[in-house]
């Protein structure tokens, strides 16, 4: 009878704790109605002392008592438990003990999920957790700390957690997820190819977005006494790069080595699905993005998906698909029409500049100088750092130069000015710019002839494309 009464009192106490709000409560408040409160506080002290000394085996028994008897005592109990069993698992060589530690580790995550809402009530913002965050960590440990990993179960946990956390997914989780997906693909290429492609896109998309955010933080330059310069990143940017550059690089390396994005293989996967989803523009846009990312945008499947997408809704990606189809048919005017449409539809200046430059290059090839210059100006309006656009403009300007007299070389001088502007705006094009400058300089008069004609270096000159100053070779 006493045992029955004790069990009832324990149940009532647990119900009372779970019913009350724990917001702002202290540890003593949360243990106030617990009949084992004295033993819990003692065990808490014992496990924490052993934990600090890294005597994890010694810490297990008192930790388990707190974990079982007071699940709402402290969030730290869950964090310490996960760390402790991961470390014990890693250091253990006995298979049975490793299995035991793994099972205890999974119990930590399961119980934390069970009591998550209540734990969050009294936790600081830093210690609060989400279902997705806990699930992601459980997924990681279920794969890397399991003597006999259940790949399918771990994969599903990863997907569930990452879908919930999105851009807040921790970098190490993404790192582990792409490793698991890669191993899964290697086990059965045909069965898991599509999953692997989608997983690669997911990981690189999340990492890419966050790394782009890192670029938005201000940087500072430190100059040493020797004159050496060092770029110093903002602490926030440094943390993002430290956390998300490794999984991004890992995903890239694994995926390139896998050969999963072979265009023929992508065609086999997506051709029947494009037909089945030809009225689902979200799906079509996803396929177009995949084909484009893996340089399979010259395939007829890309054209088909773009046509279907365009019929449903005019989007930049669909317009580019239509432009691509026109180019294959040597319909330059049709392609330019759709590139113009893509420019109008997108709000991304980088994309606008990219499309405008393609049109400029098409018009240059056709000999339409005025049209080409118009699109070069659009390119530089959207993307002022596009060195290739400057160099294309320099080429057009230089065409109007001649050797009739010194002043007739002004277009060559202006072309050199434009090439120098290209190097300043886009250092990556310096090699091409220097080569062009050498070619244009070869068309200039020597200084001696300038002296004889009474024309000095720096003399102002006008051209059909703008003003410059006379140069000599």
Keywords:
single chain, 473 residues, mainly alpha, Serine Threonine Protein Phosphatase 5, Tetratricopeptide repeat, 5 domains, two-stranded antiparallel sheet, 72% helix, elongated, disordered N terminus
List the helices and strands and how they pair.
Elements: H1 2-19, H2 27-31, H3 37-52, H4 56-69, H5 76-91, H6 95-114, H7 116-122, H8 131-144, H9 151-165, H10 171-187, H11 189-215, E1 220-223, E2 229-232, H12 235-258, H13 263-276, H14 281-293, H15 300-312, H16 316-328, H17 332-345, H18 349-366, H19 369-382, H20 387-398, H21 410-425, H22 430-441, H23 447-453, E3 460-463, E4 466-469
Antiparallel strand pairs: 1-2, 3-4
Detailed description of the structure:
There is one protein chain. The chain is mainly alpha-helical and about 475 residues long. The chain folds into 5 domains: about 1-120, no CATH class; about 145-215 and about 230-260, no CATH class; about 260-345, Serine Threonine Protein Phosphatase 5, Tetratricopeptide repeat; about 345-385; about 400-473, no CATH class. About 70% of the residues lie in helices and about 5% in strands. It contains 23 helices and 4 strands. The chain has helices at about 1-20, 25-30, 35-50, 55-70, 75-90, 95-115, 115-120, 130-145, 150-165, 170-185, 190-215, 235-260, 265-275, 280-295, 300-310, 315-330, 330-345, 350-365, 370-380, 385-400, 410-425, 430-440, 445-455; strands at about 220-225, 230, 460-465, 465-470. The strands form 2 sheets. Strands 1-2 form a two-stranded antiparallel ribbon. Strands 3-4 form a two-stranded antiparallel sheet. The longest helix is centred in the middle third of the chain and has 27 residues, at about 190-215. The chain starts with a helix and ends with a strand.
């Amino acid at each position: 009878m006493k045992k029955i009464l004790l069990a009832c009192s324990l149940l009532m106490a647990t119900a009372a704790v779970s019913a009350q709000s724990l917001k702002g409560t202290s540890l003593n408040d949360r243990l106030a109605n617990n009949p084992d409160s004295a033993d819990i506080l003692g065990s808490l002290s014992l496990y924490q002392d052993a934990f600090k000394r890294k005597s994890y085996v010694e810490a297990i028994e008192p930790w388990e008592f707190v974990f079982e008897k007071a699940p709402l005592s402290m969030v730290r109990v869950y964090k310490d438990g996960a760390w402790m069993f991961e470390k014990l698992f890693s250091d253990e060589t006995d298979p049975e003990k490793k299995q035991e530690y793994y099972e205890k580790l999974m119990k930590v995550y399961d119980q934390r999920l069970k009591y998550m809402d209540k734990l969050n009530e009294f936790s600081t913002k830093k210690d609060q957790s989400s279902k997705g965050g806990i699930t992601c960590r459980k997924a990681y440990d279920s794969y890397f700390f399991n003597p006999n990993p259940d790949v399918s179960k771990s994969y599903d946990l990863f997907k569930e957690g990452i879908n919930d956390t999105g851009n807040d997914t921790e970098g190490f989780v993404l790192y582990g997820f792409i490793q698991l997906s890669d191993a899964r693909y290697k086990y059965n290429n045909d069965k898991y190819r599509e999953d692997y492609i989608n997983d690669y896109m997911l990981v690189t998309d999340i990492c890419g977005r966050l790394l782009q955010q890192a670029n938005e933080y201000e940087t500072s330059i430190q100059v040493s006494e020797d004159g050496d310069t060092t770029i110093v990143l903002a602490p926030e940017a440094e943390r993002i790069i430290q956390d998300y550059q490794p999984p991004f690089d890992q995903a890239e390396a694994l995926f390139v080595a896998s050969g999963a994005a072979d265009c023929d293989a992508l065609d086999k996967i997506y051709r029947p699905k494009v037909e089945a989803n030809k009225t689902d523009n979200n799906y079509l846009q996803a396929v177009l993005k995949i084909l484009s990312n893996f340089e399979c945008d010259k395939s007829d499947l890309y054209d088909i998906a773009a046509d279907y997408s365009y019929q449903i809704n005019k989007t930049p990606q669909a317009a580019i698909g239509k432009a691509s189809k026109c180019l294959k048919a040597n319909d330059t005017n049709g392609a330019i029409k759709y590139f113009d449409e893509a420019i109008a539809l997108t709000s991304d200046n980088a994309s606008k500049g990219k499309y405008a430059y393609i049109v400029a290059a098409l018009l240059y090839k056709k000999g339409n100088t005025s049209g080409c210059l118009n699109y070069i100006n659009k390119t530089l309006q959207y993307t002022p750092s596009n060195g290739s656009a400057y160099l294309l403009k320099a080429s057009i300007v230089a065409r109007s130069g001649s050797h009739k007299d010194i002043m007739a070389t002004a277009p060559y001088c202006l072309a050199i000015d434009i090439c120098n502007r290209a190097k300043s705006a886009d250092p990556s094009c310096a090699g091409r710019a220097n080569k062009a400058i050498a070619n244009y300089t070869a068309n200039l008069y020597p200084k001696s002839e300038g002296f004889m004609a009474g024309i000095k270096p720096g003399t102002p000159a006008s051209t059909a494309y703008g003003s410059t100053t006379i140069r000599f070779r």
